[in-house]
Hints:
By secondary structure, the protein is an alpha+beta fold. Helix content is about 25%, strand content about 30%. The chain has five helices and twelve strands. The strands form four sheets. The protein has a six-stranded antiparallel sheet. A two-stranded antiparallel ribbon has the order 1-2. Strand 11 (about 190-195) and strand 12 form a beta hairpin. The longest helix is centred in the N-terminal third of the chain and has 15 residues, at about 55-70. It starts with a helix and ends with a strand.
Amino acid sequence: AGGLSALWDFARAPARRPPREALVAALADVGFDAVDWSARHVRLPRRGMRIDFGGIGKEYAADRVATIAQESGARHGCVNLGGDVRVWGARPDGGAWRVGIRHPRDTAAAIGGVDLADGAVATSGDYERFVEIDGVRDCHVIDARSGEPAAAWQSVSVVAPLAIVAGSYATIAMLVARHAPAFLDAAGLQWLGVAADGATHGTLR
């Protein structure tokens, strides 16, 4: 779905939404089923196709840093890459790591948190990269089915054993909109979501 991400230029000034006809054209190049891949290669058969690793890149990096550190002998650690956090081993004093969850509309406030001795917390939301036009906020989490930004949640935070798992579930939850609670609960994951109207949901507080 990288072609869709390229159309939404969140650094542009003044901000503007992509023309609908451009989104429709880009949708023709969306779909992993069209990618030719194996263990040795990845080939994108159509000119407009692009792969976007935005939903898992930081999380994969956090997990790799944690793995390398542990293999190098680090018994305790905390990796924080832009709010996506991976911890292992209790703190040196024996206590759990306290990971705060940022309020999506107040940068100075936390809306929740979780104590972890080993695991990860990742958040997907509409507050880091977005444009606001005529009072409507369009965020960088793009639904590959419609070409439009996710709009049902301000943020979704998920706790999982690995950052890449937490981040994947958080992003998918943003995209499945009203089905997110059932989706996350069925996976047995702890989570905290802030809906578009500011109401909080989930199993974390």
